[in-house]
TrEMBL record:
This is Uncharacterized protein. It comes from the Bacteria. It comes from Kibdelosporangium lantanae. Residues 83-107 are annotated as: Disordered.
Length: 107
């Protein structure tokens, strides 16, 4: 492959990675809270026993704000740790117990 083409591809990838990491610095508080809520809704483990929020993605929000948001939605804070995927600092939560609905057909 032509060295110029390779250089352009590497440059474009570098710009994309930097933009992905810098973009949260310029988002609003509402956007940060929305990202935290979306990450809370996505179960991290397959059995649904734990979920995590990457602190960096919710930038304007502080750690106590994220924990308060999660506890307001019924989640329980477990611990702060690092993500295995990208090394980002995360907060882990257990989701609230789901209410079972039973259908009663008393006639």
């Amino acid at each position: 492959m032509n060295p110029l083409v390779t250089g352009v591809i590497v440059l474009l990838l570098a710009v994309a990675v930097v933009a992905w990491r810098v973009r949260p610095l310029f988002q609003s508080m509402a956007k940060g809270a929305d990202k935290a809520a979306r990450q809370l809704g996505a179960n991290w483990l397959k059995d649904g026993s734990m979920t995590q929020v990457e602190i960096w993605d919710c930038h304007p929000m502080t750690i106590p704000m994220i924990i308060a948001l999660a506890e307001g939605r019924g989640y329980t804070f477990v611990k702060a740790s690092s993500s295995r995927r990208n090394g980002a600092r995360t907060l882990r939560f257990t989701p609230p117990e789901r209410k079972s609905r039973s259908l009663s057909l008393d006639l």
